[in-house]
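Students often ask why we bother encoding 3D structure as a string. The short answer is that it lets us treat folding as translation between two languages. Here is a chain of 85 residues written in the first language.
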Amino acid sequence: MSCYAYLVRCADGTLYAGWTNDLRRRVAAHNAGSGAKYTASRRPVELAYYEAFDTKEAAMRREAALKRLPRSAKLALCRDFRPEP
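And here it is in the second language, the structure alphabet:
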């Protein structure tokens, strides 16, 4: 099972970091208003960046690291991100 650390871009331009084991389901939950309190009032959101990990713990560590990054670094990750086909 893969786990993911991700960034979503909210409708107001802010970025939200999280982790999940199902990216599509989690982005859909954010857009339904049940993903996180922060994103519920900033819908719609779009997936802007993600990384895959073998374990939940690794994804959670990366999520914490993403949250500590300055906005400029988060934007650089999103700008340079090219999802695998």
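Translate back mentally: The longest helix spans residues 56-68. Keep this in mind for the problem set.
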